[in-house]
Amino acid sequence: MSLISKAAKEHILSRKELVEVLSGGFDDELFSAADEVRREFVGDEIHLRALIEFSNACARGCLYCGLRAGNRKLERYSLEGGEILDFTRKAVSEGYKTVVLQSGEGVYPNSKLVNVVCEIKKLGVDVTLSAGEKTFEEYALLKEAGADRYLLRIETTDRGLYKRLHPPVGELASHTEPGPRRGHPDMPFENRVRCLKDIRELGYEVGTGSLVGLPEQTLESLADDLLFFKELDADMIGIGPFIPNPDTPLGSAEGGSFTLALRMMSLTRLLLPDINIPATTAMETLEPNGRLIALQSGANVVMPNVTGDDYRRKYEIYPNKVSAGGNIREQIAAIGRRVADTVGKSKRFISRKA
Ligand code: SAH
Questions:
Q1: Distance set, CA 246 to CA 63, 74, 317 (Å)
Q2: pLDDT, tens digit (0-9, with 9 covering 90-100), for 255-279
Q3: What is the pTM of this model?
């Protein structure tokens, strides 16, 4: 039996076997097996999530990210609750069943976010949050307010690399507002894992994922990322290539390849067959039609940005970030798939609860 058939059947490979697949040589078989497993376990429906990038203010220092506190070139914004609700209402009227609220970390007041979640839940849609590391208490308040899911990528499970990429921020950037707490400015790996455990314990659908192609990242460490997803028993996994941002310390780094990111995504589908996997914006940014290729290699979710071009440009994690918008429904129809009209909770989450 080939490695790929084994993975498609048993949903596990050893670290060594994962490295072998990540090295290439199995690509056609891998991508079509992931497409097959996706069809068998989560079907042909694609879930659209309305992405609202509600604040680019950030107290962190992640070396790869354009939102990092040290980037003085970025014009910062934070949307008021009313504006977030306006974008949500518009998305709901366009048929979206889930909104994803994403931001930088450690600046936007949690209490404000709690109020926004309460209001959005009255509109009858699911709410996914992607607002970084918080305390157990903060996650609990957001869950009580009605939030359904939380996305927090581990970024990399390579402890040494993680440490180098997330240096202590020290003095906070001038754009950050005064406030009682800033989380953990020195961002240890253990805290990110603690956050994921808290999110699980509180009953959220748990999303994580990693960046592919970080400087000095090895195939072994990518294999470890996959084993971490499996061990965490995640409900959603978002994988994207690292795209260097010139306004960050990693501006002249090489960046990740589309194909390696796709291999990671397809392997994730084989190992965790019944979870939700987005075709990420970074995939589309790096490769024309990247999103459609991803949807045919294991992905079943798309997260179009609904905050408009002005905010999308300012939410500049990396350069030339595309919007999903426009003709995504037509593109989905053109590959013989259909847009779901349910909230699209992770099948993994549903069967774990049952
Ligand atoms: N602060 C939030 C949201 C961060 S932005 C959080 O930590 O969850 C969402 C994702 O963008 C990050 O998790 C990271 O994986 C990705 N990202 C950051 N910089 C990037 C870059 N230069 N290229 C590609 N993806 C990047």
A1: 11, 12, 11
A2: 999 999 999 999 999 999 999 999 9
A3: 0.95
